[in-house]
Amino acid sequence: MGVLAPTDTSDHNMERPNIFGIRHVQSILLFFGMCFGYFLRVNISAAIVPMTQPTAGQPFYDWDPSKKSLILSSFFWGYVACQMPASLMAKRFGGKLVLGVSTCVGSILTILNPLVADKGDWQYVCALRVLIGFTQGTVYPCMHTLLAKWVPHQERGFLSCLVYSGAQFGTAFLLAISGNIFDSEMGWPGIFYVTGGIGIVWSLVFLIFGADTPRDTKFISEAERKYVECSTGSDNQPINAAVPWKAMFTSACFYGLIAAHCGFTWGFYTLLTEIPTYMANVLHFNVKTNALLSALPYFVMWMLCLVVSPIADTLINRNITSITASRKIFNTIGQWVPMVCLIALGYMTEDQKTTATALLTIAVGFNAASFCGYLVNHMDLSPNFAGLMMGVTNMVSNLLSICTPLVVGAIVVDEESPDEWRIVFFITAGVYLLCNGLFLVFGKATVQPWNNVNTSASTTTLPNNTDSLSVTDFHS
């Protein structure tokens, strides 16, 4: 089924002008942007342990589990609120400016974290995390907008997965080095100084060398510019694109996609925010070992991200599976394998540290398969509105991210109780079961009729910077 091809389809068969070009430089910049963005997001999950344990020569705060849960949750209050505004700002002003400025502001706020904790109380830390979350709410909408302009459809699978895998690499790397930072002269405040400083440097580099489209950089060759523009359709976009809100929100497959996104987000952020606490209090690992082992699942997930993408592409390109079947297969692997691991993890004790760590690693690692499931399904359903759809599904799913630390805080009163953690893992497994089940029933990977901007009802007109993804030569 040919879908939204550019006017001159012969250009899609253009020979690639070079093996490594400016499109790859832009992808690498975005990879590190995703990586450092997750530095700002994850640092509090690692720091909350030493911040609330007495350590010689370091500040200590006697926050109970419910207060810690509010601090961990508060990031997502701002994050969720910014999803739709960020999508519209990226379309109006360009992803480069919005992403670069917001990351710089978030990095400056991150550096202030130790000062705010020292001069205020946990409520002030929550307020600061809300603001940081607001700045980070721009990341995914901006990434989607920029990838739509820069990644040729022939290379979309690998380069998109490379960029988004920066989240896992950043998470794993920061958790791995956090123990060394905590043991240094800086102590736990150092993790905020380091991550904030790196974020500021990246922002400046990106604002100088990044570009919204191939036409916006002087470094690209004419051959590569034409290749990218013809493949993405960015040279052939409509001046105004009407958003089919009514048709979108009455589409069953869109709700299947929302369910899949919600399942992934609930599981991913439950584990992301709580693994360090679980390992410290139930498995009783010391700070440095805790940091390294908390990072291990995300290194595995990052590596698997780069493995599953070519497998999924091969299955589709060789007509072994349809696109719809492929999306459902990989999303099921990415959510139901972790579901089984979490059920087993609920019965682990301190005497079974190795098995518990292995189960956590598998649970988080196999989430990578979902990147070839729900994460690319926005582009399957509506190439024209994939960016806005990402904003909607990310906003809805991250409403759950607000709830996950609060649910854990309400259940886990005694952080050393395996029985209470078992309830958390069972709830997460149930969410995986339900959400992927809905995706299996309602999910599709065919372009929907409302993708056609000329036939949409109940629409809103966007500014002329609207991005239009181009998908061709797919069969489902």
Automatic annotation (TrEMBL):
Function according to Swiss-Prot or TrEMBL: May be an inorganic phosphate cotransporter.
Gene encoding the protein: 101895644
InterPro entries: MFS, MFS_dom, MFS_Na/Anion_cotransporter, MFS_trans_sf
Positions of the Major facilitator superfamily (MFS) profile domain: 30-447
Lineage: Eukaryota, Metazoa, Ecdysozoa, Arthropoda, Hexapoda
One of the Pfam families matching this protein, by short name: MFS_1
Keyword Plastid: no
UniProt record similarity statement: Belongs to the major facilitator superfamily. Sodium/anion cotransporter family.
Main location per the UniProt record: membrane
Membrane topology: Multi-pass membrane protein
Subcellular location: Membrane
Molecular function in Gene Ontology: symporter activity
Stated name of the protein: Putative inorganic phosphate cotransporter
Organism of derivation: Musca domestica
Entry's Gene Ontology BP terms: monoatomic anion transport; sodium ion transport
Chain ranges passing through the membrane: 28-49, 97-116, 122-146, 158-178, 190-211, 252-272, 292-317, 329-349, 355-376, 388-411, 423-442
Gene Ontology cellular-component annotations: membrane
Top-level taxon of origin: Eukaryota
This protein's record includes keyword S-adenosyl-L-methionine: no
Record key words, sorted: Ion transport, Membrane, Sodium, Sodium transport, Symport, Transmembrane, Transmembrane helix, Transport
SUPFAM superfamilies, alphabetized: MFS general substrate transporter
